[in-house]
Structures are given as structure tokens and as C-alpha cells.
Amino acid sequence: MESASKIGLTDGESKTTVSVKTMMANPTDAIAHSFLVHFLHHITARSLRFAIEELVMIP
Fold this sequence. Notes:
The chain has 59 residues and is α+β, with helices and mostly antiparallel strands. Helices cover 46% and strands 31% of the residues.
């Protein structure tokens, strides 16, 4: 079984859509999918962009 969710991330200037797909092999996978979707839902595109810039050290 597969579970899919789409999450819209926005900071007022830009919008990013993230798709999360999880293959459900056992009940623990459903919990992991729900946690991941909940976590990503609370990240804004700005903080995501900031994190990426810090990782790759873009000036």
C-alpha cells in the first residue's frame, strides 16, 4: 500500500510544493509518514532556502 501527501510551503514571496510518498509495509510506516508530513508542513520555504544556502555555503 502507498500513502501520498502534498505539502505547500510558502514565505509570502515564493511557494514550493513537496510531495511525500511512503510505501506502507507495516503500521510503523504509517506513523513515520504522518510524522514526516506534519514536520514538513511546519517548515516555511524561507527556512528551507536558508538551510540549503547554509549547507552549500551560497554567499
